[in-house]
Amino acid sequence: MKTINIGILGYGVVGAGVAKLLKQKKQLLESRTGAVLNLMTIADIDTTTDRGLDLGTTALVSDAYKIIDDPAIDIVVETIGGETIARQFILKALENKKHVVTANKALLAGYGNDLVKTARKNLVDLAFEASCGGCMPIIKSLRESLVANNIKSMSAILNGTCNYILTKISKDGSSFEDALKDAQDLGYAEAEPSLDIDGFDTAHKLAILNSLAHGMEINLKDIHVEGIRNITPVDIEFARSFGYTIKLLAIGKFHDDHVEARVHPTMISDSNPLSHVDKSMNAIVIDADATGQTMLYGHGAGMMPTASAVLSDIADIARNIILGIKRRVPILGYPEDNIKIIPILPMKELYTRYYLRFEAQDHPGVLAKISGILGENNISIKSVHQKGRNSNGKVPVVMITHIAKEAWVQKALKQISKTDSVIGDPVVIRIEEIAQE
∠78-58-322 over CA atoms, to 5°? Predict the structure, then answer.
């Protein structure tokens, strides 16, 4: 039985999970791959902390280049994270003609095109199943299972921190601040949570998935990104009364000459299966021309779910090594020569429906003034909802629009904000009619 030597860069949560599976699932992995997956070396700056795992003959070193430059290592697994030293290590490993497995979505979203070119030049594989959606096989589904499909759209919950916070606000009536603190106490959110709650983590994943779905270069910079900081129990309660749920969605849609790619809080119907994905769980609905809608659901993060996805990549590469083949499946699902630059629709050109909430002054004619400005900007109102005045004399006014253009809505809201009819900035949440609605 062939022995395939593996080195892990980073012995944190994910790295320890990968090591644990390689050690504890040794016989299962051998029976499924037909090879001995030998964890030869782990590199981490901390070589003294007890991770609760007997490494046996596996060396634990502080110098990453003892893995990267070791000719005996076949597969390098990067679990360090970040976009600096991890990028340097991966590029060097690829240049040394080693196959690389990574879960680093930020690095892939920002520098994936260069990494793919380096892997191609050196005829090695770069695998990243764990980068998007944790244990959900999103990458393999887009790259292999749906190969005969044109992907029409993708709608996904890809950040467990945001989903947990929105669930807490919705189910318990918590404030955003209290829900965030609870998520931090449970380990779902980092002490500095901006990457998650401001939507950037989700955008990284959408950039990768767009490339796989449509054969386009990875493009992060043109994705519209909004987070969940401004979502309140008031908006969630209004959404519930209309039969909607608010989720932070990654939305990708293919058109003839461009792609929609946006991340923002979104109102979706309670009939949409994504509306029932709660707490820290992730899910994606893929709408393709041959299959129709396919939904994947599972843990998007955590030691063992992420490690499981990493092992799936290791096993794929091991099988290729056994057969003496490389790069059997293109890294981005399309041969590199077929990857195109497809523009992303500017957000101002988007057409969708909108939920608008104003804190209106309790004066005669205010509603007429707001409605008039919307009408002057080609925005048709489907319904208006007004609750009793607050203790400060403000009146919450909610409007649901018909389909309108983003540029029209933003222009109208600027005009309304300059009047004396409203207090503070209006709340805007886009409504998406997707997934079996």
Answer: 65
Token representation of residue 202: 């989700």
Contact 130, 139 (CB under 8 A): no
- For residue 390, what pLDDT is reported? 62
Q: Which two tokens stand for residue 10?
A: 């980073």
CB atoms within 10 A of CB 123: 10
Confidence grade of residue 435 (pLDDT, cut at 50, 70, 90): very low
**Between the CA of residue 16 and those of 6, 24, 304, 330, what are the distances in Å?**
14, 12, 9, 28
Alpha helices in 280-347 (DSSP H): 303-323
Residue ranges of the chain that CATH labels 3.40.50.720: 2-135+303-338
Beta bridge partners of 381: 401
Spatial CB neighbours of 70, under 8 Å, sequence gap ≥ 6 = 7, 40, 41
- Judge whether residue 437 has pLDDT over 50: no
Run of H or E residues at 254:
strand 244-254
Mean pLDDT to the nearest integer, 219-234: 96
Confidence of residue 342 (pLDDT cuts 50, 70, 90): very high
Q: Which CATH class is domain 2-135+303-338?
A: alpha beta
Architecture in CATH for domain 348-431: 2-Layer Sandwich (3.30)
Give the Cα-Cα-Cα angle 194, 258, 345 (nearest 5 degrees).
Answer: 45
Answer whether residue 436 shows pLDDT above 50.
Answer: no
Positive/negative CA dihedral, 278, 352, 223, 265: negative
Question: For 120-144, how does the pLDDT look when each residue is reduced to its tens digit (9 = 90+)?
Answer: 999 999 999 999 999 999 999 999 9
Q: Is 23 a catalytic residue?
A: no
Joined tokens for residue 362? 């309790």
> How far is it, in rounded angstroms, from Cα 378 to Cα 258?
25
Active-site hit among 98, 105, 140, 205: 205
How many beta carbons lie within 10 A of that of residue 148, not counting itself? 9
CATH topology of domain 138-298: Dihydrodipicolinate Reductase; domain 2 (3.30.360)
Q: Flag whether the pTM goes above 0.70.
A: yes
